Amino acid sequence: VDRDSQRVEPLSHYLSEAGYRVFLARSGPEALAKTRQLHPCVIFLNPRLPILSGWDVLTLLKADGETQGLPVVLLTDRAEDQAIAQRGFEAVMDCLSLPVDRSQMQGVLTDLLARQSQVTPATRPLTLLWLVSPHRDEIPTNLALERLFHHYHYRVIEVDDLDQAGLLSKVWKPDVVLLDIGGADAECQAVLTTFQHHPGLIRLPIITLDARTTALANRVLTTEGKPLRVFPCLTDPELLSDTSGLPAVIEVIRIAANANP
Predict the structure, then answer these.
(1) pLDDT the model gives residue 89
(2) In which region does residue 19 sit, left (phi positive, over 0), alpha (psi from -120 to 50) or beta (all else)?
(3) pLDDT one-digit tens code per residue, 186-214
(4) Is 172 exposed, middle or buried (0-12, 13-18, 19+ CB in 10 A)?
(5) Which are the contacts of 129, defined by CB distance < 8 A and separation ≥ 6?
(6) What is the CATH number of the domain that holds 96?
(7) Number of Cβ atoms within 10 Å of the Cβ of 37
(8) Angle (CA) 243 249 250, round 5°
(9) Where are the beta strands (DSSP E) in the chain?
(10) Boundary of a domain, candidates 99, 121, 143
(11) Strands of 43-45's sheet, edge to edge?
């Protein structure tokens, strides 16, 4: 996170060389939005930002249960910034002086890898590939589902194009696919038929939200002649389950994500 992309270009290069995917944010609000969407393994943050300062960003990240545990590396050449970080921000794991030196960077990555090795799979956010209708403009956005997924700290990748969905599944390795495609039967069937051409998608558990999509999905076979792994949520997604007390769609997603292929 830095308002000057050229200033952090060497850092981006070092991280890419080490095998990390790097995303740049140039302001505090952009940093918060991308952090909540992407849930990165580490944030490199310059506190001198427009609109919201880096200190504001840190305070808001710490106040959010979804982001409060994310490690932060401060990017600064100011001694007073480092002193402020040490006084009140436990999330700051280290400080790097700008311009970033490769040997300093290596030390930070060593510490980061040690932290990552202690993270159990249960603490990682569940990733949901939300496949919506290509005619989404004609269908109201399901804000209730968006709020639910945010509340349960899911990483949500929303997409309305199957080719893009296939590509994103390789990058983000989602746990489940949520089919929310709507439209006429013919349109729904066309999407499901095209599904067969994306092996990375058809191997994933698929959540359906209505009886019609469920029936159509159950008719689709993989290239090996096997049925798709369909997990229907046929009640109101927001209603609590009698057995788990979870919203119905959350219970189905958890069951699907833990099901053996």
Answers:
(1) 62
(2) left
(3) 777 777 878 778 888 888 999 999 888 89
(4) middle
(5) 157, 159, 165, 168, 169, 172, 174, 176, 177, 178, 201, 204
(6) 3.40.50.2300
(7) 13
(8) 70
(9) 43-45, 72-75, 92-96, 127-132, 155-159, 176-180, 206-208, 230-232
(10) 121
(11) 43-45, 72-75, 92-96
13, 35, 155, 254, 255 from 121: Cα distances, Å:
28, 19, 14, 14, 16
Chain centroid to Cα 122, Å, comes to 15
| Domain assignment of residue 180, yes or no | yes
| CB hemisphere CA count around 178 (13 angstroms) | 25
> What distance separates the 2 farthest-apart alpha carbons in the chain?
64
Indicate if 91 and 184 belong to the same structural domain: no
168 and 81 within one domain: no
184 is a domain residue = yes
Domain boundary among 97, 121, 145: 121
Same domain membership, residue 207 and residue 103: no
d(CA 140, CA 241): 25
> What pLDDT band is residue 121 in, cutting at 50, 70 and 90?
very low
Count the neighbouring beta carbons within 10 Å of the beta carbon of residue 209.
23
Per-residue pLDDT band for 175 (boundaries 50, 70, 90) equals: very high
Helices (H), 139-261: 143-151, 162-172, 185-195, 199-202, 211-219, 248-258
Residue 193 and residue 85 share a domain: no
pTM above 0.70, yes or no: no
Domain that holds residue 37: 9-121
Give the count of domains, the chain: 2
Residues 6+ apart with CB under 8 A from 242: none
Three-state DSSP at 240 gives: strand
Per the listing, tokens 């159950």 go with 218
Which residues have a Cβ under 8 Å from the Cβ of 234 and sit 6 or more positions away? 210, 211, 214
